[in-house]
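Re: your question about SET domain-containing protein

S., sorry for the slow reply, the queue was backed up all week. Below is exactly what I fed in.
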Amino acid sequence: MTGEDDADPWDAVTTDRVEGKGEALRATRDLPKGARLLRVAPLFAVPYAAELTRLCGGCFQPRGAVCASCGSARLCSRCGAGAAGTLHGLECHALARLRDGEEGLTLAHSDLRLLLRALAVRSMRRAVDAGGDPAAIAAAEDGDVIVDGYDALEGLMSGVDGGDDGELPHDAVATIAEVAKQARFLLAASCRCSMDECVRTLGRLQLNGFEMTASEPEEGADEAEGGGHRPVGVGVFPSASYTNHSCAPNCAQRFDGHGCIVVETARDVRGGEELTIPYVDVRLGRRERRERLRKNFAFDCACERCAAEAD
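Result:
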């Protein structure tokens, strides 16, 4: 889409508060299908274990060299020379320990690696708030990207306190606490924090994380069925988290070549309408959708589609 709708990433949307949902986004005017609303750089993002040595951990592109020290991360020259390289320096020893399976933990524990990344970013907050990689790279090439600072994380639900903070099941909180306990001793001492902060941070990452997908479809995949994009990692994009879920969403998300999330309208949208995206596969049945939303995002879906299918 071109023209005035591309001039400002927030030009077509405004924030609002919706009862029972909390913060939300609304359209400021009528929008056609395919209008780009937001492009947000990841505050934290890590590749899945199968992609660690294939994709650059900064820009999520298949380029760069694998770290000779940990053998568990790849960085291209551009990302390696910036904040992403500094972050890897803080994570390198921890990744080597995960590679060796210490204490039964492995590189497959993506939630643990995302927490390690968050704690590393926390320790170098000034650099990230000034515009870290890959956000700074994306911003330099296309000025419409939103770059969140670390403080934006603290405004997201953690699932620990209930109410507006969300309420994860007790067993989920217990699992988070165990992962947090392990993470506190994997990173350098400069990155460590209190157990309470570690638990709340991981809760925020889990409740607000987006599964990232490769821009190219898998071989033989049918894009007409809504699938075909290979999952490659998980990231947190605070400004995009204001977009609430619906099982009949009017928007969709994708990921560009810098690891940024792009939110676009999936149909014509009227001014004032709440903007929504799918948090789970909307092709699933009502019961399975609701179970996944309750387990992974700590809320019961009350969208119009769920209400209609219940009837």
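The CA atoms of residues 72 and 267 lie 41 Å apart. The longest helix spans residues 83-99.

Happy to talk it through on Thursday.
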